[in-house]
Amino acid sequence: MTERVIVVGSGPAGLTAAVYTARANLTPLMLQGFQLGGMPGGQLMTTGLVENFPGFPDGIEGQELMARMQQQAEHHGTRMVMEDVTEVRLDRRPFGVFTSGGTEYQTQALIVATGATARRLPIESEKRLWGRGISACAVCDGGLPIFRNKELAVIGGGDSAVEEATHLTQFASKVYLIHRRDKLRASKVMQDRAHKHPKIQLMWNKTVEEFLGDKMLSGLRLKDTITGEISELPVVGCFEAIGHEPNVGFLKGQLKTDSEDYIVTKAGSTITSVEGVFAAGDVQDRRYRQAVSAAGSGCMAAIDAEHWLQEKELV
Predict the structure, then answer these.
(1) What is the extent of the structural domain holding 222?
(2) In this structure, are 233 and 249 located in the same domain?
(3) Does residue 41 have a pLDDT over 90?
């Protein structure tokens, strides 16, 4: 059987696309993922309290939010398969979609919503304290009560790191910007912003050796990259801003991407370089990377796919 639309990915973008395509009677099939690119449900599955998703004035736990979105998609008729997509073939119609379970699906339209994985430090203590003071998103988590009026740290040296540090100054008493070199990689305007901000302290030539704390983060053990000297920095929050990697490996170069592998979409739409393929969420969004913006683009992808199927008289 040829599907009308397959949604690959089960984060906010994918689940919103599923809700909209299901309500349009397109009977979508969602391939949720399993291990590649993170767990089903996306990055919110490893997030604690989410306070900035509309409709929840008291906040909502990330896992609960994703469970509710999945229930809504299933309620409207979305079929779910918890398998990774290992390959797609976009040079033929209908498209071929292959999973880790050995199944080949065929579909007229494809919505790619596989997200992006935050780069993380390969330190055992980081895994233990992830979500317990360690995060990859200051905009998502920086305003939480546990971080307010406390000393925080940001790891990185690019524009994103400076943006994260600057955002945190709205809540923190002080923000340490930790970089392994003696000069930021950020643009000149962002460098000036970091140097001039009274709450930001730059820490040059430092790498994190260990995250300290039992149940919650209490500090960082740092190593000087020049002298080798070890020091400790007491902070209650640390935000890793060392980049993201879009989950596009299964595409094998069949869609146009930018220099950092984000899928390129037509301005103001989710249309990709291959007709009938649409991209939504963090896999095509290198700027915002928020749950609500991902959900919005999932809506856009569903509507774009529905209109395309109608134009091609495939529904």
Answers:
(1) 120-240
(2) no
(3) no
Active site residue 140: yes
Is 137 among the residues known to form the active site? yes
Q: How many domains does the chain have?
A: 2
Residue 38 pLDDT > 80: no
59 and 153, same domain (yes or no): no
Q: Which of 84, 91, 140, 261 is catalytic?
A: 140
* pLDDT surpassing 90 at residue 48: no
Q: Annotated catalytic residue: which of 58, 84, 141, 282?
A: 141
Burial class (CB in 10 A: 0-12, 13-18, 19+), 135: buried
What residues pair up with 224 in beta bridges, in sequence order?
Answer: 206
> Based on the domain organization, do 217 and 299 belong to the same domain?
no
Annotated catalytic residue within 84, 137, 238, 282: 137
At 35 the pLDDT is 76
Pair 302, 281 in one domain = yes
Reported pTM: 0.81
Pairing of strands 244-246, 95-99: unpaired
CA distance 238 to 117: 18
